[in-house]
Amino acid sequence: MNEPTRLRATPAASTDHGDDTRTAMSGATIRRAFLDHVFYTQGKLPGHASGNDLYQALAHTVRDRLVQRWISTAETYQSQPSRTVAYLSAEFLMGPHLGNNLVNLGIFDDARAAMASLDLDLDEILAQEVEPGLGNGGLGRLAACFMDSLASLEIPALGYGIRYEYGIFQQSIIDGMQVESTDTWLRNGNPWEIQRSEWAVQVRLGGHTEHYTDDRGHYRVRWVPAKTVHGVPFDSPILGYQVNTVNTLRLWRAEATEAFDFHTFNRGDYLGAVNKKVTSENLTKVLYPNDETQQGKELRLEQQYFFVACSLQDMLRLLSKQGLPVTSFHEKFAVQLNDTHPAIGIAELMRLLVDDHGVAWPEAWHVTRHAFAYTNHTLLPEALEQWPLELFGRILPRHLEIIYEINARFLDEVRIRFYGDESRLTRLSLINEHGQRNVRMANLACLGSHTINGVAELHSRLMREDVLKDVYEMWPDKFTNVTNGVTPRRWIALSNPRMTRLVTEAIGDGWIRDLDQIRALEPYADDAAFRERWYDVRRENKRDLAKLVRENTGVVIDPDSMFDVMVKRIHEYKRQHLAVLHIIALYHRIKSDPHADITPRTFLFGGKAAPGYHYAKLMIRFVTSVADVVNNDPQVRDRLKVVFLPNFNVTYGQRIYPAADLSEQISLAGKEASGTGNMKFAMNGAITIGTMDGANIELRDAIGADFFFPFGLNAAEVYALKAAGYRPATFYESNPELRAVIDLIQHGFFSKGDAAVFRPLFEGLLQHDPYMLLADFASYVHCQQDVSHAYGDRTRWQRMSILSSARSGRFSSDRAIREYADRIWRVEPVPVCLLHRASGQVQGAQQAGEGGFSERCGS
Ligand code: 26Q
User: Fold this and answer.
1) What is the C-alpha separation between 200 and 232, in angstroms, rounded?
2) How far does the centroid of ligand 1 lie from the alpha carbon of residue 87, in Å?
3) Are the CB atoms for 335 and 83 separated by under 8 Å?
4) Which of 278, 464, 514, 563 lies deepest, with the highest CB count within 10 Å?
5) Which atom of ligand 1 is nearest to the CA of 290?
6) Percent of the chain scoring above 70 in pLDDT
7) Residue 250 CA: distances (Å) to CA of 348, 681, 790
8) Which residues, by range, are in coiled-coil regions (predicted)?
């Protein structure tokens, strides 16, 4: 076939500076471009445009302003040799794009004005966006914050993941219980993605292997798959904050290789042929909604392999486009494994190098080991990924062989290093031989990586001492810590505009780029006038949230009450039910003494439970049942309110964190790897009540012990109490308040007299209580009393709140990414200069036009 005619830059076109004005940033140009998109893209007269039309038109207007930077970034990266980060993650929980892009472009206020000039409300347009919920929670959201920081720090990076057709399920609450429905986030189309069919790749699955000797007498292996699927990339632009860098998030969608399987079709089996197509395309249909647990589901393993195989092929394509040999893979790419979900990449890269490119095993292993690094996100042993050998071999027969080979060579090394230590061999082996044999993905990830990191100091220590102790003793130098962080662009500048204005007025806007600068706010904690303004900002945020709560749940809440907030996935180890026990204790105090001095509080809960996690679903029902009683008791309802916010997601979070007074971070010490919600609350001026777990410890150190409310056992005490034989009933027997609380539940007080409803919750608590609620109850309730006392002193509380924000600089994801870049990836920033659209030439700084940021265009 002939090559299609290519669009050539003509001399006339190269003097056409139309792109500068077409995508300029002034209010007038935005307004005109927006109207053009309503007409030409949405095909509507302005008067007939729906809410979605308006959103799509503004999204396209903003996208147009990213494209020139996106292309310039790609050209810049293509033409220079620096190392690129490939961030491999099964989840990217990006949240809505439009507002964030307006912030990073620096045109939020201009866009608002442009919309206002058309009698449109920017907030209403922003609210139209259906967020891409392609993640479960912390891990997926971390990947999104990291993408923002990578671009903002001008580091060449690609995010690789899966374009799930259905993201995390939508949660509604019916009769107090969670009901799931599918997340059809693509129903109105996605203006932020570009399908790149020309870079589609093929992925093999199943079948068997054949061993043979090639013409040069070399032993070779051929993988004969049972099926092949297409992987089609969909690219979204990731713009940095006020820089020209636009990195790419590349998500893969599975498609059938042939629209019709002619073989089957010709046999007359039309439906059978179509069915095959449907089966292939099922691969990227849905995100698995469980976090921190894994059942060995075949489709999930296929998903993991699929996106990793697509991504590695894509990296090899980029490598060869630069004319570099496959053996320089590790020099070109720093591949980060976001947990073990993409760890199969280690075996896949070995396969590509050895089988497809004929690289000798030792060299292939050198390349692989110098390319990969692994981040662990869990301390729960049950969450460590393992795949049944039988299933693994059925889907990835060649990879199982490669894993055996890696394992054999590795265990030889261990045998010599730890002479005679047989049990160490069984613990370190990539194959778990206990019971049903399993492939241990964490061991594979550790073995194939040059660096292994935890996500908070405590987590990294416990990783070394406990979960990955044997691996640590093998390679102590591989281990490091990078404490998590979150992006101040989304989590302050976008979600809390009032605070952003106030802070910027006081100390300038440098803190948005460099959050350490927010420390300059410290002296303002002693400024009474500033404290009042801070209070006013927070009060307004609380009013906004109260309005949202009323719209979404019908419950009226008082913005003058303390907003005591716990939003995160529902889990036993996170202990939402401990917070509920405290509410019941307060309820009991008021009922026993109507004049009891109780600080008015509104308890807000939000979070999804994995659909198959019955205990977690019962915890939701527990919250809503207590809410029912408390909110309807005339004696109590003006002092205590309990609300469960349905469908907590990124969009919702942006409204909640800025309105919280108290942040609940109450996991059992030693269980939460880091937590990142804790950081979002603190930045926005909420005070934390928390256990000495995950990043809470570092948060307390940063903010100051006087401004953090700690309670409960620490990790060492948890271990000690477990070792000594924990008996929860002792606490029940010796604490009358705890006993009263548990008895109320046991007698069915919160379940209309039906004692059976919450029996599974509380029988477990009295007998085993694996997350030690009863051990921490007294300390928690006591600490909450200190919190109430502090809240009663407005000056003290506002001071604490200001200092909490002022000292949160360390928890910016920019700091985290700098640590990864320096210590793990060894990558440098590559500033991007704008290219001229038509000529493909680098544009002079003077011509870059408004919003060109060309002054930041260095070397
Ligand atoms: C694995 C296999 C099969 C199906 C699902 C999964 C799966 C999916 C998601 C396992 C785990 C997750 C998510 C884990 C997660 O979000 N962990 C959190 O990561 C945050 C970022 O580091 C930490 O702050 C949290 O402490 C940690 O719980």
Assistant:
1) 4
2) 16
3) no
4) 563
5) 5
6) 94
7) 19, 30, 48
8) none
The total of other beta-carbon atoms located within 10 Å of residue 384's CB is: 19
Residue 355, amino acid: D
CA distance 501 to 112: 15
Q: How confident is the model at residue 808 (pLDDT cuts 50, 70, 90)?
A: very high
Query: d(Cα 111, Cα 849) in Å, to the nearest integer?
Result: 18
Tokens standing for residue 679: 């950081």
**Cα 500 from Cα 102, distance rounded (Å):** 15
CA distance to 192, 276, 286, 307, per residue, from 230 (Å)? 22, 13, 17, 11
Q: Which domains does the chain have, with CATH numbers?
A: 1-79+99-130 (no CATH), 138-481 (3.40.50.2000), 560-792 (3.40.50.2000)
Residues with CB under 6 A from ligand 1: 136-139, 142, 288, 290-292, 294, 300, 341, 377-378, 385, 455, 484, 672-676, 694
**Token pair of 350, please?**
């070995």
Q: What is the pLDDT of residues 615-644, one digit of tens each?
A: 999 999 999 999 999 999 999 989 999 999
Q: Using one digit for the tens of pLDDT, what is the confidence trace for 115-150?
A: 999 999 999 999 999 999 999 999 999 999 999 999
Q: By three-state DSSP, how is residue 115 classified?
A: helix
Question: How far is residue 553's CA from residue 560's CA, in Å, rounded to a whole number?
Answer: 19
Residues 6+ apart with CB under 8 A from 180: 169, 170, 171, 289, 611
Question: CB-based burial of residue 242 (10 Å sphere; 0-12 exposed, 13-18 middle, 19+ buried)?
Answer: middle
Atom of ligand 1 nearest to the CA of 340: 1
Map residue 565 onto helix, strand or coil.
strand
Region of residue 772 (left: phi > 0; alpha: psi -120 to 50; beta: else): left
Burial of 757 (0-12, 13-18, 19+ CB in 10 A): middle
Q: Is 277 a catalytic site residue?
A: no
Atom of ligand 1 nearest to the CA of 672: 26
What is the residue whose two structure tokens read 């999804």?
608
Question: Largest Cα–Cα distance in the chain?
Answer: 92
Q: From the CB of residue 508, how many other CB atoms can be counted at a distance below 10 Å?
A: 11
Residue bearing tokens 């994801």 = 813
What spacing in Å lies between the alpha carbon of 588 and ligand 1's midpoint?
36
Tokens read off for 47: 């008067």
Quick one: pLDDT at residue 295? 76
Q: What is the pLDDT of residues 211-263, one digit of tens each?
A: 999 999 999 999 999 999 999 999 999 999 999 999 999 999 999 987 556 66
DSSP state of 138: H
Q: What number does the ligand 1 atom closest to the CA of 141 have?
A: 21
| Rounded Cα distance, 398 and 401, in Å | 5
Whether residue 568 lies in the annotated active site = yes
> Which helix H or strand E contains 21, and what residues bound it?
helix 18-22
Q: How far is the CA of 453 from the centre of ligand 1 (A)?
A: 15
Mean per-residue pLDDT of the chain: 94
Active site residue 377: yes
Tell me if 106 sits within 8 A of 856, measured CB to CB. no
Distance in Å, CA 774 to ligand 1 centroid: 26
Contacts of 171 (CB under 8 A, 6+ apart): 178, 179, 180, 608, 646, 647, 648
Ligand 1 pocket test: which of 89, 136, 298 has the largest number of ligand atoms within 8 Å of its C-beta?
A: 136
User: What mean pLDDT comes out for the span 404-426?
Assistant: 97
- Please give the C-alpha separations between residue 651 and each of 94, 165, 656, 657, in angstroms, as whole numbers: 10, 19, 9, 11
Does the pTM surpass 0.90? The reply is yes
Alpha-carbon span 770 to 766, nearest angstrom: 10
**What per-residue string of b and e applies to 388-422 under the rule 16 or more CB within 10 Å gives b?**
bbebbbbbbbbbbbbbeebbeebbeebeeebeeee
**Region for 175 from its dihedrals, namely left if φ exceeds 0, alpha if ψ lies in -120 to 50, beta otherwise:** left
